[in-house]
Amino acid sequence: MEERYIASIDLGTSKFGLCVARVKGDDVQVVYYRETPSAGIRASVVQNPMKASVPLRKAIEEAENELMIKILQVVVGMPRSDVRQETATGGIVRSNPDEYITEEEVENLKAMALESYPLSDLGSQIMYGAVAQSFSIDDQIQLVENDVVGTLSKELEGNFKVFIGSRRATTAVDKIFNSMGIAIAKKYFLPDVVAKTVLTEEDRQNGVALVDIGAGVTSVAIYQGGIMRSYDAIPFGGKTITGDLRTECSISEDLAEKIKLKFGACMPGKLASLSEKVLQIRLTEPYKEVSVKYISEVIDARCREIINAVLYYIQESGLAKNLRSGIVLTGGGASLVNFANLFKEISGYEVRIGFPRHLFSASVGAGIYDPSATSAIGMILAAKDDRMPDCVTRPAPDWADAPEAESVQEEEEETVEVTEGFFVPDPTYNEGEQGTLIPEEEYGEVPAAAEEPTEEKKAEKKKKEPKAPRKPKPPRMFWKNLSDNVKNGVLKFYDEMTKEDE
Predict the structure, then answer these.
(1) pTM, whole model, 2 decimals?
(2) C-alpha angle 31/36/41, rounded to 5°?
């Protein structure tokens, strides 16, 4: 089965999440995941493509150098803010009502509904995606896609949720990757791919609200009957909390983010002994002191505002009473201490944190299973199902040319063997040196190969041959204390003595 690589990039407000996975059939192994601070992005929309491309280019180069690959194309997510939902309908009269309705017919109906949907401004709007809500046939209505495939009917009608966003936002994404020479294989509407990564089929059937808390956007996707029924986005998230800390404590945004991650928590009344701790910020004179309890009070106020906004959209969807699986929190902001408990206390729903389900294996660190990685992982899994082609090129291995080298060596050895001549030891031959190849016309007739002596003959010859006298050696001296001239003179003297004895 052919092996391929898929690369996904989550263009977040505060970070870029770059993920590379090796895919072979249904097996997905994540081989690289790293988050890099982003720039030029606000509320998940690229505001400054030139600024955004600088850290993104560096992140891609680091991945290429570590994996020794070249990324040619990627899958990316569309912005989650400034998205509105509309209803589209479509219908067809089937030419052969005695044949089963196929998945291809359903997809064609969906495409027809999207093409015929009138956008008010084609220059500034674009469709991010569509989700089939229900289908109707001759004698049945409100069928889901899985139920309508395989039925018999003369007519087929469908109702779809169409998600419309800004064309300028997607153009800015194209601009970034075009400047780096990387193609965009596909853009995904993130709420649906994240849901398939975090939620189970039971969650989507029973009714659940998936709340993705990013740095610049908090999105609310509501599922019921296995289908996304509603989507809304709130234009603030974790970065707004950081901004509150920066303002209230009069510190830099970078330091406020570090304090939030290290000491941030909701529900200050439930921090126990942690609320008594005081942080000393040694950036000014005199030192600034901020209590952990006060930091928690600032965070708690903003989190309550986010929760109330989410609950408002849940009520507006008309599905507030159908959420039997409660609320699932994901995204980087979901990891904030006590946030899930605060959400449960205010809403009355069952609330849990959604982590990437184990639909893949990973050879990277634990960060791949954090809520902040759900978007990048979701796009990898969606691209795998869409049979995305190989997104990278890999250099040829070092041993790729080895067979050719071996064949050349074999040819050279064969050439030596067929040369007209034979090997004769040189009279001045020393151990470790090569012999001399003498042409046949100069040496005469080639002698027959000598018979290999047996072990008995070798032993007999060894007894008859007298042992050669040992070559006298210079006396032991303290060589390291002598100069080079003295050493050379001593060696020359002993060489002359040796010649006279011979």
Answers:
(1) 0.76
(2) 125
